[in-house]
Amino acid sequence: MDRDFILTPWESEGDIDYTRLVERFGLNVISNEMRYRVADTAGEDHFLLRRKIFFSHRDLGVILNSHQSGPGFFLYTGRGPSGNTHIGHLIPWVFAQWLQKNFDVTMYFQLTDDEKFYRDAGLSLDDTYNLALQNARDFAALGFDPNKTHILINSRHMGTLYPLAAQAAKKINYSNTKASFGFGNDTNIGMIFYTALQSAPCFLERKPVLIPLGVDQDPHFRLTRDIAPILKYPKPALIHNIMIPSLAGSKNKMSASQKNSAVYTTDTPNQIRKKINKYAYSGGQESVAKHRELGGNTQTDVSFLYLWMFFEPDDVKINNIKKEYESGSMLSGELKQILIEKMTKYMEIHQNRRESVDIGEYIFDEVEYKNKMRR
Ligand code: TRP
Asked: How far is the CA of 151 from the centre of ligand 1 (A)?
């Protein structure tokens, strides 16, 4: 196995080479045709698709077929509450909200407080539960339809999840999880069972499910896809986004557990300014003279990448920034200033919504779910 980079749900090391990742994971790159088909069916385009931030899929065509001439589909994604929410988490959620709005579908969101408890030696189950409630606010703040959106917290909704997880667990054997996740004899058995729990929400409804997710989560659902037909469910369909770089640059993905590697949705304008100015990796040259001559590198410059991947959806504006930075007429400090302004504005609006949102409206209701399934 080539070890130049590692990407699993729990580990990220080295520079991710996406061409090689596509081969390694067996992903389907989203073709232009597929991109147009999504936009056509949705009735509008989305910049995350257009810019190939969502770059690959599994069975996306099946989902569109089911929407157009079948039973439809539902959405599912999730979050392991190991810390505050950072902007990398917002990418699949913002896209999921857009899908919900344009396809008018039900959304399930799983908060895996158990997973992060098993995984992180420093976190108690109370810690991860409290973080789950905090993360739920960030999710709900993005404008999901409260009547069609259900947030499940693993430690609270086992009554519904356990029978589904048990179905999955019986069909997944140890050698498969071991190979997928690199488990050893010292891995705790909570971790070994966990992939069954992340599979469970796929089986909440009999319809096809579409999961927008960071590509690091794909290994779980490869296992789910193998076993779904045995359980007489459709294989879950996936649409993957690339990982957003940490502040220090593309070598490390953003991590909720390393404080200065990320910008959080809880950061103040001051913290945002300091983090970007001090830690955001610059693709600029060492001296102004050299920068004017050679220009900056937009492939590696983290401030540019944050604008490109999230904070500047306007194509005309981002292309101007790109041109000016690459030609050397825009300096690294000026680019950082643009990002700081965009981010500060975004966070101000987000934080207001986050404080005022009523997550009670979104928390999964087992009784309501049972009644709906009986119909
Ligand atoms: N394991 C994910 C994480 O660590 C959380 C998660 C649960 C998830 N269910 C999911 C992510 C479905 C994507 C899709 O963040």
From this structure: 13
